[in-house]
Task: structure prediction
Amino acid sequence: MSEAAGFGKHELGTAVDEAWLDEHELEIVRGRVPMVYVEAVPVRLDEVGRVTHVGLLLRAMADATISRAIVSGRVLWGETVREALQRHLDKDLGPSAFARVPAAPAPFTVVEYMPDRARTGYHDPRQHAVSLAYLVPVEGECHPSQEALEFVWISSEEAAGSAVSAEMTGGQDRIVRLALAHAGQLP
Amino acid sequence: MSEAAGFGKHELGTAVDEAWLDEHELEIVRGRVPMVYVEAVPVRLDEVGRVTHVGLLLRAMADATISRAIVSGRVLWGETVREALQRHLDKDLGPSAFARVPAAPAPFTVVEYMPDRARTGYHDPRQHAVSLAYLVPVEGECHPSQEALEFVWISSEEAAGSAVSAEMTGGQDRIVRLALAHAGQLP
Amino acid sequence: MSEAAGFGKHELGTAVDEAWLDEHELEIVRGRVPMVYVEAVPVRLDEVGRVTHVGLLLRAMADATISRAIVSGRVLWGETVREALQRHLDKDLGPSAFARVPAAPAPFTVVEYMPDRARTGYHDPRQHAVSLAYLVPVEGECHPSQEALEFVWISSEEAAGSAVSAEMTGGQDRIVRLALAHAGQLP
Amino acid sequence: MSEAAGFGKHELGTAVDEAWLDEHELEIVRGRVPMVYVEAVPVRLDEVGRVTHVGLLLRAMADATISRAIVSGRVLWGETVREALQRHLDKDLGPSAFARVPAAPAPFTVVEYMPDRARTGYHDPRQHAVSLAYLVPVEGECHPSQEALEFVWISSEEAAGSAVSAEMTGGQDRIVRLALAHAGQLP
Result:
């Protein structure tokens, strides 16, 4: 594994190193294999567990739009899916969100983003990503951090509607509807 | 619907009336149709959502044994599955358990108790019951109330083992293993 | 269990006896406990398992309308959920449907029909029914039998649309959308 | 993206090109990002959909053992999860297996293989792989092809037992047990 291979030298330990894969390397790898992603639809539940609200971020997306978005991000080498979920939830919703990563590892759906829009209906201009989508109850206060501009709670009826859909890109509006359906709360 | 029909007079409102179906009536109905039950496997999760412990009650069972048991009970006429789950969790684990009824209505498995042991492997001498089984994360303190004698947290490895299985009846040990498998934590 | 109890004499064996509960008895029981139902959304899959079409019956419904409907029916005393599913599929789709009852017992959703429309959004004027809903791939030819007037295959896009919804009652249009969402095929 | 980047020249189209990523390139990418895999547990069902048998291959594994194994393989760039599942099923079970890729995209569990055995309990010395595991009913005849030496149907009781587990590596015996639990057939 030399520099000629296009990758800088680095040590690979069991610890996850967010920084080890630089942008150039990432771009190369993205053209070769599907990337593993996780997706979280933050939800508020009532006292018997029914979804009442969906949490949406406002952020700059991969397709250069400013859009409503769910929590989404890459799983790193050596990182478990649960750790990745928790990391992205912490990063996007802040430290006092008290997001509950689900006990079951099976996602409610699998989303396949492709550069070709026609392939699956989910679109990412940068890559082919296979994303595991989870419904994540959030009990605390959300304070969008880093790249997100805003975070809002929207009622489940509104979240499934066309006005909200129009503000989302890449097919994430469909993920929200599938999440609501999984929770039995799709109108 | 007269008294000759074997049922006492009563008003059926939208409110759930725990008392309306007396023991005699219940016995009759139990011989005619399958009863709807809910089952909850109480679990403790670590900081990334992995099941670490399973909560078990010690109680007098329908088969006249004193056994380890999960939370289980009937869904009443007019009561939703979520309400029944919450009611039985409150009753069995006490008011400060903070049990989290899951957002998704689909159970992780469906358990079919029958008087005939050979039919499904799940046994209830009193009735044919179709029970929806849920994994329920519990965050607070559990204080067994009413009929339960004791409540203990057992590690997920132990809960899947034969020593604990031997203390459970009716097939509930198998429900615990299916719950752990659903959570990816079956050894 | 005498005749005075309002129920005729009969032997309860392990065999399921479709006829044992007469209409009068059924009406009484229906007012006392939730009934167990199964629901099947028949689907056609393409060569890689994607849902392409949803199968709908045209039939007289409990609310006295003639509506599009999915396969639905009661689980009898002593009958397993799988047996009930197969029996209702055979009855509604005919003997050459080759419906594939799923390997996993967990339904994709649980539907709670109540006489009170406002309670869950699912409505049955006759009873409180807790129905386990399954997605059932069908590979053969469907010939509606008994009470169904017609059976048609509708594309998954159409099945999720408002024109088809308007022809369904009791909330079954929502079950179809939840089924499509479960299959990742909700638009 | 030059040759200096360590990758040969090639066209990336929508068509999946099994050959485009050579062994050297694959080795490099494997050290940088988790690989996306699919896993299929082939099963025989009885007439009401209960799992009666599990299908196991005998093959040379990544850890250099000859072991019993389930169907498993990589998802290629541009290939959908369904296409990958179908491709690996065809390759491993032969053209007349009539394997039924499930309608729902959600796997029954997510398996995380790591070079470090202690991390998740699933082990692959070559890579970090995130594998989506599906239960796949098989209706035809299986003829192991390519790298598999043998294919056998084993009863679900046996498949969950310790004798079969001892012949499997990497944690695949646990995947079989989780699959049986998902189907309600774990003893």
Remarks:
- Chain A is about 20% helix and 30% strand.
- The interface with chain C takes residues 109-110, 174, 177-178, 181-182, 184, 186-187 of chain A (CB under 8 Å).
- Confidence is low (pLDDT under 50) at residues 1-19 of chain A.
